[in-house]
Specification:
This protein is of the alpha/beta class and 303 residues long. It has a single domain, classed as 2-enoyl-CoA Hydratase, Chain A, domain 1 (Alpha-Beta Complex). It is 45% helix and 14% strand. The strands form two sheets. The protein has a seven-stranded mixed beta sheet with strand order 1-2-3-4-5-7-9, sandwiched between helices. A hairpin with a 4-residue loop joins β2 and β3. It is globular and about 55 Å long. The structure holds ligand L4XM7KOE. Ligand L4XM7KOE binds next to α10 and α11. Pathway: Lipid metabolism; fatty acid beta-oxidation. One of its GO terms (cellular component) is mitochondrial matrix. Belongs to the enoyl-CoA hydratase/isomerase family. This is Enoyl-CoA delta isomerase 1, mitochondrial. It is an enzyme of class 5 (isomerase).
Length: 303
């Protein structure tokens, strides 16, 4: 984690100066940005590109971990740190999450981080997955997922953990928690996030079958909020964010926390037990065999 912090995340500013915020409403005072020019880094190893427009208060986090934005340990760490930095930056009021990879929002957790590794690695990996979700689901600022491609499992979790989901209306894309198709199980907090999004009955069917939804079916069940032509996704997300920004921050923030805190607290109260469960589950021979088979099928393009 420290290594990633030192390497930094690529921040590019545009619009007005990064130093003084121009567009802060509702009692937000102009402030020295935490992204001073000396903090900007154009490291090419960066897996997430962040553009913050301090004149509007809108940041765009673009996933760029080719080929499919799978969330490995480094990606997850960068993601959590990037969110944290933006949360601390008073010139930022909302974050749009999207992908720089064509056709894929995120392929979910990196299966290679869950296959053939040591218990210590599994433990570190799972803690990073928890960190990411805890930060995003409990995020004080507005988050909009601009889902410009397929979004299985962990990708769907990231989408559901956002405040609003806009998906590209491309019938080839899919979104859902497909864990059972891999022979694994979505943990309780993935399940809770889905129940909170689409309700209990739909989650029962989704999780047991590992259902992946087309954009129109995802809209029908409320897994996404809006479909737009692919080329309009970022402009729609920005326009939508502007509407969210009209709401006084403190009132929106308290409302969000009232709805989400009990779910966040459930994991906070059992983080170590959840990690222990993950490690013992994932290290089982039968589970490793399932993941190995799934990886082979992926490589043979049979998934
Ligand atoms: C008692 C209960 C206890 C519970 C404890 C918890 C249990 C564990 C919980 C774990 C939760 C897991 C969450 C996850 O997110 S698992 C990941 C699920 N993701 C998927 O199934 C996606 C698989 N990928 C695809 O469907 C396609 O790749 C995709 C549609 C995303 C893109 O298709 P496309 O045709 O464009 O690209 P390719 O398929 O050719 O893929 C390109 C290369 O990328 C590799 N790949 C794809 N996805 C992943 C991934 N998730 N992780 C690692 N690698 C991935 C793929 O193999 C290709 O590699 P090669 O080029 O080398 O062949």
């Amino acid at each position: 984690m420290a290594a990633v912090l030192r390497r930094g995340i690529k921040f590019i500013s545009f619009g007005s100066s990064q130093v003084f915020s121009g567009g802060c409403k509702h009692g937000k005072t102009s402030t020295l940005s935490s992204f001073s020019s000396s903090n900007r880094n154009s490291s090419s190893s960066s897996k997430i590109k962040v553009d913050l427009d301090s004149s509007t208060g809108i940041a765009v986090m673009k996933f760029q971990n080719p080929p499919v934005n799978s969330m490995n340990l480094e990606f997850l760490t960068e993601f959590s740190i990037g969110l944290e930095k933006l949360e601390l930056d008073k010139s930022c009021r909302g974050v749009i999450l999207t992908s720089a990879q064509p056709k894929i929002f995120s392929a979910g957790l990196d299966i290679l981080d869950m296959y053939g590794k040591t218990p210590e690695h599994y433990e570190e990996f799972w803690r990073a997955v928890q960190d990411m979700w805890l930060k995003l689901y409990g995020y004080s600022k507005i988050t909009i997922a601009a889902i410009n491609g397929s979004s299985p499992a962990g990708g769907c979790l990231v989408s559901m953990a956002s405040d609003y989901r806009i998906m590209a209306d491309n019938p080839r894309y899919r979104i859902g928690l497909n864990e059972t198709q891999l022979g694994i199980v979505a943990p309780f907090w993935f399940k809770d996030t889905m129940v909170n999004t689409v309700g209990h009955r739909t989650t029962e069917l989704s999780l047991q079958f590992g259902l992946m939804y087309s954009p129109s079916d995802a809209l029908k069940i409320g897994l996404v909020d809006q479909l737009v032509p692919e080329e309009n996704i970022l402009s729609t997300a920005t326009e939508t964010m502007t509407k969210w920004l009209d709401i006084p921050d403190h009132a929106r923030e308290i409302s969000k926390s009232m709805l989400r805190k009990p779910t966040v607290d459930r994991l906070l109260a059992s983080r170590d037990a959840d990690i222990k469960n993950f490690v013992s589950f994932i290290a089982k021979d039968s589970i490793q065999k399932s993941l190995g088979l799934y990886l082979t099928m992926l490589k043979q393009r049979k998934v």
